[in-house]
Amino acid sequence: MTLAIGLTLAASAAAAQDAADGVARDAPDTAPSATLEAVTVTAQKRTENARKVPSSISVVGEQQLENQHVTQLSDLNGYLPAMTISNGGSPGQTSVSLRGIPTIGAGAVVGTYLDDTPLGSSSNFARSSRFVLDLLPYDIQRVEVLRGPQGTLYGAGAMGGLLKYVLKDPDLHGFEGRVGAGLANVAGAGDLGWSARAGLNAPLIEGRLALRASFANEFTPGWNDNLASGRKDINDTRQRSGHLSLLWQPNDELSLKLTGLHQTVDSDDNSLSTLDAARRPVFGRDGTDKRVAEAFEKKIDFFAATLDWNLHWADFVSATGYSKTQTHQASDESPIYGPIFPLFGAAPGLSEFSLALELEKWTQELRLVSKPDDRFEWMIGGFYTRETSANRQVVGATTLAGAPIPGVTPLAIAEIPSDYTERALFANATYKFSERFDVTAGLRHARNRQNFEQIVSDGILLPLATSPGRSSENVTTYLLGSRWHFDRDSMLYARIASGYRPGGPNFAVPGVPPSVDSDRLVNYEIGWKSLFFDQRASIDLAAFLIDWKDIQLSAATRDGISYAANGGKARSRGVEFTSMFKLTPDLRVGVNGSFTDAYLVDAAPSLRGLPGDALPGIPRWTFAATADYYFEWSAGYNGHLGASYQWLGKRKTNVDSNPDAAPLPASGQLNLNADVSRNAWTVRAYVRNLTGARDISALAPVKSAATGDIVEWRANRVQPRTVGLEFDLRF
Cα separation of 663 and 549, whole Å? Predict the structure, then answer.
């Protein structure tokens, strides 16, 4: 019945997102196949068919990224089942939730990997939950999303799931190059957007040594206006990405890949508009009156070395990684702190909050992976990471004219240097009782140590002091699962898996607990994956139940100082569904959707939440659909037409019982794309948000530090209708 519903919806032109089950087309001129193509993934640290993975997984392929002109992670919001992506006003200011596990603490609940290497901090001091890796997706082979905890293979922070970017590897045998450019018009923007990119793959020694290099530059014009300063289109954003990989294969048993990547995000301001205390626009739909430019900049330097050694009886893998991430964010805190200036004998004025983060992360993983076998498969490994993090916060205070206020300026200068060290051992094994039935078990034991200092060197908000803190903990996660193969195209699986987010020392503020414990969850899941109609139709169906305890929450003192606290228990349960169908060899349609019921089991005083309250930011329903039609013209021309629709149900900014909770409406977005290619060139047109929907996707209250009352709201809306034209030449 579910499949029939999916196919009916697909036939009505609301068809499933192209990448929801990993189906991707290599190139427009590829000979059409009458069956759904298989997709290879590495999400379980083995190369395998996505349809054989006993877990809920989605894959967004390179072709989908190109067709939709995806330039940031939030462009995929609503495309994948049970996944919510929140945009804080520009690329890089992004948080991700999976299966109803929201980012209500400082640490990330979704792990992020680039190939075999984790990025982002495991501690609470680098604010990793708010600044998830947001790559400009050029030279990316695919994006893999695993739903549910991945603590056994991926460790800390992957308790909600995993987001994995897979880069293109150098090709040892074929030379290829690519250049491209594009223009885009964003409704309401005063300038045109533009993009430029180039890529090259070159075998330096045929069959033994190859190089891949690429560069991409993306400019997105702003559409928000600042009525206080008179500036228009304030949220111009530039993204740049460079990638270099070298693959050396001295013989058939050994290969070494060296990878370097640099990316920057530079936004003049964010796209947040101002609403009054009753959540009504004050300066129009896209207007604000901020007195301080809220610039954002993020730089990532990433280097990795991956060694693969075929020992014949097993494969040995060494994955070494180093990354340095620098983040600078400015925000206008004048409505918060300006009203308290009179308490110090000064008139109300301006306050800028400046946040500077720097994270250096070293990682090393060694693992042995058995060869595919008829009976027994196994994996053992060890993992080490060392993170050093700098966190500098300055709360300024000036007159309305921008002059310092004696005795008040600055309100606070605080630095929070920290380090995080983790060591882990992990193993899993699969025993095949027969061709149809197997059982998997996995275990990971980790120990982490954390140190930090809170150094308040100036200001009147906090006592001047240096306060150290430290913590350590041992955490064990596990996995139990089994698969039943009804035939070669149909599989039923069951899975129990656990995950955790590290705790750590807390900020030294009066009335704040000195540390926060790790929070942990257990996921119970049953799923079905199958192909039908001579492998022309597919269905992925999964039901899950998650028990979450000792929830890490972000709390705040009366004067707005944030800290971490543990809550009680919560539960998330739901169903995820994906179906694809090839109506003809040239026409592919499908649907996907999810239902998620995530709620508090215990009261959460720091959230002012009561048992039964829905968790914040989690829609009960999501739905996505795509249709892709490929065709051939005469004289060697090939064409493609595509359409997609994404929809998120209503949700709230906070738990139901919190008086500051505000509703976020259900929202949908329709996208179209088309391309024509001949020989080496391709021309592509796209429209994102065809109907011009401007629903609010994120909303945050601004409270006066003097009264504690909400004085305004800051809203982020879906990007206006964007129409673009792209040109690519391959050689």
Answer: 26
Question: How many whole angstroms separate alpha carbon 606 and alpha carbon 609?
Answer: 8
Extract the tokens encoding 226: 């600042």
Query: Per residue in 11-32, pLDDT tens?
Result: 333 333 333 333 333 333 444 6
**What is the distance, to the nearest Å, from the Cα of residue 192 to the centroid of all Cα atoms in its chain?**
27
State whether residue 598 is helix, strand or coil.
Answer: strand
**Closest Cα partner for 135 from 88, 104, 92, 186?**
92
**Which two three-digit tokens encode residue 434?**
């027969």
Q: How far apart are the first and last CA of the chain?
A: 48
Tokens (6 digits) for 38: 């298989």
**Which tokens belong to 263?**
């990316």
Give the residue carrying structure tokens 């559409």: 223
Residue 659: φ, ψ to 5°: -65, -15
- Between strands 225-226 and 287-288, the pairing is parallel
- Separation of alpha carbons 642 and 630, rounded Å: 9
Task: Give residue-wise pLDDT tens across range 428-464.
Answer: 999 999 999 999 999 999 999 999 898 999 998 888 8
> Strand, helix or coil at 400?
coil
Q: 């499933």: which residue's tokens?
A: 16
Q: Can you read off the two tokens belonging to residue 191?
A: 């300038």
**pLDDT tens-digit profile of 270-298?**
999 999 999 999 999 999 999 899 999 99
Contact indicator for 675, 724 with CB cutoff of 8 Å? no
CA–CA gap between residue 724 and residue 184 (Å, rounded): 4
Q: What is the mean pLDDT of the chain?
A: 90
> Could you tell me if 159 and 149 are in contact, meaning their C-beta atoms sit under 8 angstroms apart?
yes
Six-digit token pair at 720?
Answer: 């206006």
- CA dist 503 and 565 (Å) reads 10
547, 596 Cβ separation under 8 angstroms: no
Residue with tokens 């290969």, as numbered in its chain: 255
CB distance 568 to 551 below 8 Å: yes
Length of the chain: 731
The secondary structure element, H or E, covering residue 703 is strand 696-703
Q: In angstroms, what CA-CA distances link 326 with 73, 289, 436?
A: 19, 28, 50
> Rounded to whole angstroms, how far apart are CA atoms 178 and 197?
8
What is 490-543 written as a DSSP string?
A: EEEEEEEEEEEE--EE----TTS-SEE--EEEEEEEEEEEEEETTTTEEEEEEE
Structure tokens at 108: 């990330």
Q: Quick one: tokens of 693?
A: 């929907």
DSSP state of 92: T
Neighbours of 251 (CB within 10 A): 8
**Coil vs helix vs strand at 696:** strand
Q: Which two tokens stand for residue 372?
A: 């595919």
Q: Which helix (H) or strand (E) holds 176?
A: strand 176-186
Q: What is the pLDDT of residues 149-164, one digit of tens each?
A: 999 999 998 999 999 9
Contacts of 333 (CB under 8 A, 6+ apart): 292, 351, 352, 353, 395
Phi, psi of 569 (to 5 degrees): -120, 155
- Label each residue of 13-25 as H, E or C: CCCCCCCCCCCCC
The kind and range of the H/E element at 63 are: helix 62-67
* Residues contacting 633, CB < 8 A, separation 6+: 639
C-alpha 530/C-alpha 410 separation (Å) is: 62
